[in-house]
Amino acid sequence: MHNQPQYFHPQAEAALADQELRANFRGAMDYLRDKRKTAFDDADEESAIRDRSEAIRQRCLSKLPELLEQLETNCIANGIRVHWAENAEQANTIFTDIIQSHGGTLAVKGKSMVSEEIELNAAMAKEGITCLESDMGEYIVQLGRETPSHIIMPAIHKNKRQVADLFAEHVPGFEHTLDVDTLIQTGRRVLREKYRTADVGVSGVNFAVAETGTLCLVENEGNGRMCTTVPEVHIAITGIEKVVEFLADVPPLFSALTRSATGQMITTYFNMISGPRKDDELDGPKEVHLVLLDNGRSQAFADEELRKTLQCIRCGACMNHCPVYTRIGGHAYGTVYPGPIGKIISPHLMGLDATQDLPTASSLCGACGEVCPVRIPIPELLQRLRHEAKQEPNPGALPLRGQKAAASNTEAFIWRSFALATRQPALYRTMTWCATRLRRLIPSKLGPWTRCRTAPRPAAKTLRELMAERNK
Predict the structure, then answer these.
(1) Can you give the residue ranges of the 4Fe-4S ferredoxin-type domain (predicted)?
(2) Any residues with CB less than 8 A from the CB of 426 and at least 6 apart, and which?
């Protein structure tokens, strides 16, 4: 299933009509909210963690160009080969060249949203290279030929019956069962054999430390550690915004990430990769490559307000608390990054012409901003993008691709007319007089608005008429 953001509205309607999907998300979102609430049971501690995490991300982003150069220098000194990719096409070419140079045909992958962003699996398939997902959630959606519906829990939209049906269809010898432990063990048994035969291991990066040239990887299943140590070649890919200045910056961000994402004080595995296997070491890859991807991030970085988008540490908390996401799920958005964070990231990656409906798919309730561990002002950025979708760029601003894609001559005429009317007292009084007397001509059904809402019944008399009667 590959939805597209241009068709957000029909995709959302289809999701709302899927009662099983809505039940799956309702239970999962309630669970994750409760877990986060338990992890942050002290409001003062939560505020302090968020303040510090925000300060770290803003400091690192303010020095991003220098930190990227420092990261490259220290990674190379550690034996890591660094590659730069301006867009998805360049990144996929880098992967192809590395894998083919080793005669590889199988890559086993840890969970990486950036690899989803560049559609790595499809690109490698065209070159005769199989990319097998090793994260259990990613493995499940790969079997179903779907894309992840959540950035932390890719298969959160499926229940155990749906997973069992997938295994029965694709895993030889599987006996249908709804026992969760059996389902997990079945997937792990299949994947464990692949680690031994894979030519290349692929991973994402949660934090890249400029000070030491270290790649940090957060995970719970151990598959990330297997992907980065068993195959002879390890390729890590990350967006350029994931760099942090000091190793000491990682623990506060790590704490904020795990508590916000899954309600854990600490994850099961925290991997720190600083180079390939040394001569006196028994395990680890012989080669480590790092691919640094731009793909629209420089555009966001160039604008001081939109730069805050890049503070994201990919915890998914904003999704779990969003009233829109929790009802329609991730696939309805048609983007790699769904939910509130996706609405502000995707326009930079894909252009406003493709994503113009996403910034308006929000009630602006503010829940996403209230739970963000790095305090990204998501509601304010959504309003900014709504403006960008309809107006010319601000003076001196670097325009988004597709700027003004949602502009409407009719809407512009209506607002100009309204502005003119409100500036002229006599015209304004005439307009309100007409509106109160012609209100009965308004249709009882107002299209999509009244499908979920009941329009208020007009008062029998105007307020002025009631006041006049009262004063008689």
Answers:
(1) 302-331
(2) none
